[in-house]
Amino acid sequence: MQTPKVTARAHTNIALVKYWGKKDEQLIIPQNGSLSLTLDHFYTDTTVCLDDNATQDTFILNGIKMDPTKVTKFMDLIRQQANVSTPAIIESVNHVPTMAGLASSASAYAALALAGSKAYRLELSPKDLSRLARRGSGSACRSIYGGFVEWKKGYDDASSYAVPFIENPTWDIKMIAIVVNGAQKKVASRAGMQTVVNTSPYYPAWIKQAELDLENIKQAILAKDFTKMGQIAESSAMRMHALNLSATPHFNYIEAQSLVAITQVEELRAHGIECYYTMDAGPNVKVICQGKDLQAILAKLKQHFADEQLLVSAAGPGAKIITS
User: Fold this and answer.
1) Which InterPro entries would you find in this protein's record (predicted)?
2) Dist. CA 85–CA 267, nearest whole Å
3) What SS3 state is found at 203?
4) pLDDT value of residue 324
5) Chosen domain end from 170, 185, 216
C-alpha cells in the first residue's frame, strides 16, 4: 500500500561568501560560516510516498532509476525521527545540470528534506528542516530559505543551520549563469574540499578571511552597497579556487571557457558596467549584476556564448510543498 504523495520544490543557492571545508565529515559541520543568494531559475521537484510493499527505497532521478544507497542513508535520518521503517518511492527532477557546480545538490536535498519529512508526518521547524537538509549536502541547509541566507557554522548538529538574512530582497540583483560545461565534474565537492582542508598550507588564512568576508558582506547587503558586495563575492570565489591549486594533489575546476567569461566581466567593468563573477566547484561562471545593466551585459556575453548558455536568475523563494 502506498501513502499519498508529497511533492516539494526547492531552489538552488549560490554562495557569495563560500564554505569550503568541513570540521565534521559525518555531520557536515563547516569550517566557516557562509552567505548565499537563492535563485529562482534553478530548482528541484521531489516526490516522496511510503510503500508498505517494498523492502528498500526506490530512487528515480530525471526519469531514470538510480542506486538508492545514498538517498536511503538520508531517508534513514527521517525514519529515525519518525520512528517508522517503511521504505519510500522517491522521484526527483532536477531543473539544473547535476553535479556541474550549479548547486544541484543544494536544491535536491532541501526538496528531499521537506518532502520526506512531510511524507513521514514530521512537522519540522524551518531551523530543524535546515539542519536535516545539511546532513545531505551542506549548502542544502541554505536552500530552505529564499533571498539572502546565512549558514551559521555552529559546532555540532544542533547549532549548525541556516537562517534567512533578507528573505525577500527588494534590491534588483540578477545573476547570469554562464554554462560553459554542464557535464559532471571530475572532482566532487566533498572530496575536493577535504583534500584542501588536509593539505593546503593556506587553509588557516582562508578561515580567518572567510569569517571577515561574511561580516563585511552582510554590512554591504544591508547598505545596498553593490560594489562592496560584488568585490567580496568575487574575491571569496577566487580564494576558494586558489586553495584548490595549493592542495596536494592540486586540482582545478576552471576551464578555458571559464577564463573567457571572467575576462568579459572584467572588460565590462573597465568600460563602466559594474558586474562581478563568482564560481563554485565547477567550471560554470555566475555573473552578479543589477537589473539596469542586464541587457548590456548579455549583449557582450552573447559575442562568446550561445543564448542557451546564458541563464538569468533573480532572487528565488524558499522550499515549499507543491502537492500533498
Assistant:
1) GHMP_kinase_C_sf, Mev_decarb, Mev_diP_decarb, MVD-like_N, Mvd1_C, Ribosomal_Su5_D2-typ_SF, Ribsml_uS5_D2-typ_fold_subgr
2) 57
3) helix
4) 67
5) 170
Q: Which of 170, 200, 228 is the last residue of a domain?
A: 170
pLDDT in tens, 221-242: 999 999 999 999 999 999 999 9
307 within domain boundaries: yes
Is residue 12 within 8 A of residue 143, CB to CB? The reply is yes
Tell me the DSSP string of 279-312. E-SSS-EEEEEEGGGHHHHHHHHTTTS-GGGEEE
CATH of the domain at 40: 3.30.230.10
Ordered DSSP codes for 135-193: HH-GGGGGGGS-SEEEEE--SSTTT-EEEEEESS--S-EEEEEE-S--SPPSS-HHHHH
Residue 25: its pLDDT value, please? 93
In a domain, 229, yes or no: yes
List Cβ neighbours of 50 (8 Å cut-off, separation of 6 or more): 2, 3, 84, 86, 87, 88, 119, 120
Q: How many domains does the chain have?
A: 2
Query: Would residue 320 count as lying in a domain?
Result: no
pLDDT along the chain (324 residues), means of 10: 84 96 96 97 95 96 96 98 97 77 85 98 97 97 98 97 96 94 83 96 98 98 98 98 98 97 98 97 95 98 95 96 86
